[in-house]
Amino acid sequence: MGRDRDDESGKYTTAYADDDFIEAIELEDGLAGTTAVAEIVGCTQRQALNRLKELETQGKVNSKDVGRSLVWQVASD
């Protein structure tokens, strides 16, 4: 299945909503690794990592290094 493009900009539209990634973290009791988020959302680890980093720059999630892993949690309001 191909990705959709925005008619005006020609850019690819987002295949997954921000809430998909936030809900995935919440399903893991509020603290989830990138792999777990990717599995729940149904995307690749790379896609999950890129989107989670975008959400972090927007202040919606926070990341933390734990050993050799990066874990995510939903930012406090």
Question: Secondary-structure map with pairings?
Answer:
Layout: H1 18-27, E1 32-33, H2 34-41, H3 45-57, E2 61-66, E3 69-74
Antiparallel strand pairs: 1-3, 2-3
The total count of helices amounts to 3
What is the CA-CA span between the terminal residues?
37 Å
Q: Report the radius of gyration as a whole number of Å.
A: 13 Å
Secondary structure tally: strands = 3
- Assembly type of the shown chains? single chain
Helix content: 40-55%
Low-confidence stretches: none
What form results from the Cα inertia axes? globular
Mean pLDDT level: 88
Q: Strands of the largest sheet, in order across it?
A: 1-3-2
Q: Return the string of H and E elements.
A: HEHHEE
Strand content range: 15-25%
Based on secondary structure, the structural category is: alpha+beta
Q: Biggest sheet, open or closed, and with what strands and sense?
A: 3 strands, antiparallel
Structure description:
By secondary structure, the chain is of the alpha+beta class. The protein has a domain at 18-66. It contains three helices and three strands, in the order H-E-H-H-E-E. Strands 1-3-2 form a three-stranded antiparallel beta sheet. A hairpin with a 2-residue loop joins strand 2 and strand 3. Helix 1 (18-27) packs across helix 2 (34-41) and helix 2 crosses helix 3 (45-57). The mean pLDDT is 88.
What characteristics describe this protein?
77 residues; alpha+beta; 3-stranded antiparallel β-sheet; 3 helices; 3 strands; 18% strand
Give a brief description:
With 77 residues, the protein is of the alpha+beta class. It has helices at residues 18-27, 34-41, 45-57, and strands spanning 32-33, 61-66, 69-74. It has three helices and three strands.
